[in-house]
Amino acid sequence: MTTDPYDLPDVSGLVVGVLGGTGDQGRGLALRFARAGQKVIIGSRAAERAEAAAAELGAGVEGADNAECARRSDIVIVAVPWDGHAATLEALREELRGKLVVDCVNPLGFDKRGAYALKPEEGSAAEQAAALLPESRVTAAFHHLSAVLLQDESVREIDTDVMVLGEKRADTDIVQALAGRVPGMRGVFAGRLRNAHQVESLVANLISVNRRYKVHAGLRVTDV
Ligand SMILES: NC(=O)c1ccc[n+]([C@@H]2O[C@H](COP(=O)([O-])OP(=O)(O)OC[C@H]3O[C@@H](n4cnc5c(N)ncnc54)[C@H](OP(=O)(O)O)[C@@H]3O)[C@@H](O)[C@H]2O)c1
């Protein structure tokens, strides 16, 4: 294993699955990874919804139900709402065994004062995923992306860093490399899963920025 943090593996041959890939975030990620040359499978609770979304995206994207998506993919991104997070993962424990799981779920609440971070019992969505999937390689990333920008093909580069968290360097390296496949995007290692809560929560602050300035804000980590 390399010790150079900038030396990342070639992930171009890995199949990327997106659970809940019919939603805004999932479609956006699927589009960007497919355009970057990655094989992508969109997952859904209903195979026909996934197939329809995949056909719209083109670029060789396929659709399947979430179970088949998980089974056929090397890297599985979890892009379902927080409400459906635990039940979705529990039902896919077998299919996700040994897989590199990337959780991008932000547990948020919304009220008249805007968005705020929820406090999951396990500490974070990512830690809930790790608890529910002890035989998977759970990481967390892609929390701070704008689904609007991801889906807008007139936006050529996604100008943001992606904070990547996880327990195994080999796994976070793969996720960093995947982020780096998208023009403008860069994956930065940002710690273990016990520090995922504040990364997930920061989205509440970004939503405040977006509302105040009418933008789709991203994040950069400087001096890296
Ligand atoms: N939107 C963003 O800009 C953004 C950015 C970063 C991270 N995220 C995170 O990404 C996740 C998805 O966001 P989104 O905006 O794409 O959400 P969404 O459109 O509300 O949901 C995504 C997909 O999840 C499936 N789904 C809905 N309810 C479900 C349930 N109870 N159980 C299982 N699957 C369910 C649906 O697909 P089917 O009906 O086809 O199964 C839906 O199309 C969220 O956890 C969010 O925090 C979003």
Automatic annotation (TrEMBL):
Gene Ontology MF annotations: coenzyme F420 binding; cupric reductase (NADH) activity; ferric-chelate reductase (NADPH) activity; NADP binding; oxidoreductase activity, acting on NAD(P)H
InterPro entries per the UniProt record, alphabetical: NAD(P)-bd_dom_sf, NpdG, P5C_Rdtase_cat_N, STEAP_metalloreductase
GO annotation, cellular component aspect: plasma membrane
Family matches, as Gene3D superfamilies: NAD(P)-binding Rossmann-like Domain (3.40.50.720)
Start and end residues of each Pyrroline-5-carboxylate reductase catalytic N-terminal domain: 16-107
Coiled coil regions, renumbered to chain: none
Keywords, ordered alphabetically: Oxidoreductase
Source organism, top-level taxon: Bacteria
Protein's GO biological process: copper ion import; NADPH regeneration
SUPFAM superfamilies, A to Z: NAD(P)-binding Rossmann-fold domains
NCBIfam families in alphabetical order: npdG
Name of this chain's protein: NADPH-dependent F420 reductase
